[in-house]
Each structure stands twice: as structure tokens, then as C-alpha cells.
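Reviewer comment 2.1 asked that we show a complete input and output for one of the modelled complexes. We chose the iron/sulfur cluster case, as it is the one discussed in the main text.
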Amino acid sequence: MQKHDYGSFAQALVDWFLLRGRDYPWRRTTDAWAILVSEIMLQQTTIPTVLGRYEAWLQQFPTPAHLAAADEQTALRSWEGLGYYRRVRALRAAAITITEQHGGVFPTEEAAIRALPGIGDYTVAAVLSFAYNRPAALVDTNVSRVFARVFNDASPVDAPATRKRHLALAAELVHSSNPRAYNSALMELGQTICTTGTPSCMLCPVREFCRAETPAELPVKLPKKDTLSAEHHDLWCLSERGLLLEKQPGGKRHEGMYRLPQRPANEVQTLPLLGIQKYSVTRYKVTRYLHLAPANTVPQGKEEFIPTDKLPEIPMASPDRKLITKHLH
Ligand code: SF4
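Response of the prediction step:
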């Protein structure tokens, strides 16, 4: 695509989106807090999953002040099932800053939004664009795929130099008077028409500008990192005091959440095996062996017995929740 086509490209996307854009709850609002919540949820969770949780979450925490007033355990419990719990910690930290430093009113200045804890460049741009309709450059994986194809660019999309170039391109291309619709359109084009594999070029609103010669072969990516495996040995220790669990210490990925206690393999080899759980998380293929421990097992470190009627209230990652639910019933 030539530079003189940039304006027509952006307008074609906006026109298409205004006619055919999907109706998501976060597109019906310009409330910056609601936009921030949607952006943080959508970072590592699919749209269908977020659709099932977003409105209920906003009912529980309709303003930054509501989340700031909740303790961390309540926030973690509410996030359960969405994964990547550092996101809800970041959201709560931002809510506390908005409440304490901005009187509970979401800031409108870019510098103040950027200064919120745990909010990165992409999220700042998303809030500026979707809440305040400002021409901010937004590039996610969908947008970088569209750019690679429209410009017939075979450089790896995940390489830092390509990312930088795409960000500069996004800033140049953004629609000046309707950046909100333009950015939504660009992402939606990648989600629904310019998809991975073979795109639906016949339905594409910007096909006249596209230079892709073999779109199914684009984008090119850097070689994938190897998958790693991890094995854990968990204890199942149920007594009249409750179920033995460990509260994860500070600095761990699941800080503040509970999990079944773990032991080295050589300490559990004589215990009966209750079950095996397998799942993937990031680059890891995890296998967990669940061993039946005597009811008089002595808690170590941050381990404690939690009464079984309290288990629904405490936060834990989905694999633990599933394992415990399965073996309690
Ligand atoms: S014409 Fe095809 S490859 Fe090009 S942007 Fe549209 S859907 Fe993607």
C-alpha cells in the first residue's frame, strides 16, 4: 500500500466497522474503568470466556473505588478461572492509585494513565482510543498479521524491529476523527476475515489496498521456543480440621492463592496414588501426581488446614480447584 492510500484505507475500515462491527459490551461504553477492565481481561483470555465474566465482574466492582476497597483475596477469588492472576493484582493496584491519588475519577491525561501501576503501553493506548477517542496506535497479534499481509512483509512479526515498525505504521495509519472505530475495525478484521491460515479475502473491506502475494504464508514468525515439562507431587490430606493447603508466598506467580501442598518425589513414594492431572500452562506441560497423606500429617511452612465449607471462599488457580472439587465429591 502506498502512503497516499493511507487515508482511504482507514476510512474503508471505519465504514465497514460501523456497518458490520460486532457488538461487545465493552464497545457499548466509553467509561474508562470498564474499558480498562475489558482490556486487562482480554490480554490473555479468549473473547467468549471474557463475555461470560465481564459484566458480572463489573457489577461486583463497578468503579475503581469498589475494587480498591476489596481485599486481595476477594479480588483473586473473583478472577478465578480467568488465569494469569498478576493481571487482577495490577488492576487492583491501579484502582487503589485512582482512588487515592485521583479521588476515584479515572484520569484523562496520558501521563497520568501511564503512571498507573501495572499498565503497559498497549493498555494506555487502548484506554485513550476506546474511552477517549484519541488517535493512539494499537498493535496486537491481529493487527500485526493484517499489516504483514497488506504490506506483503515477510519479516518475523514477533521480532522487536518489526514490532517497532508496525507501531510507527499504526500511528501513521490511525483514523484522525474516529480512532475508536478504526482501531476496533483493524482488530476485528484480523479476528474475523484476515485470520490465521487462509484469510477470507473476498469479504475483505480493504482488499483493494492489500499487496499480499501468498497471504496464507504470512505472517512469518520467529522459531518457537521448546516446550518444557514439569512434574509435581501433591498431598491430599483431609482430616476433621479440613483440607491441608499451602498459601503461596510473596514473589510466586500465584502469590496469596492456595494450593495443595507439594513434596519432593522421594518423600511421597510410599503414599498411595489418588490420581494424575495433566495440563499446559505457558511453555510447560505439567503433570501432577496426587498422593493420599495420613490425616495426622504435620503442616510445614505456610501450610494450614482449611475447613471444607470455607474452600469456596478462598482463591486458588483453576487446576487446584478442579482437583479438589473432583476428590471432595
Ligand atoms: S485482502 Fe486478504 S490478506 Fe489482504 S488484508 Fe484483506 S483478508 Fe487480509
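The radius of gyration is 24 Å. We note this here for comparison with the apo prediction described in Section 3.2.
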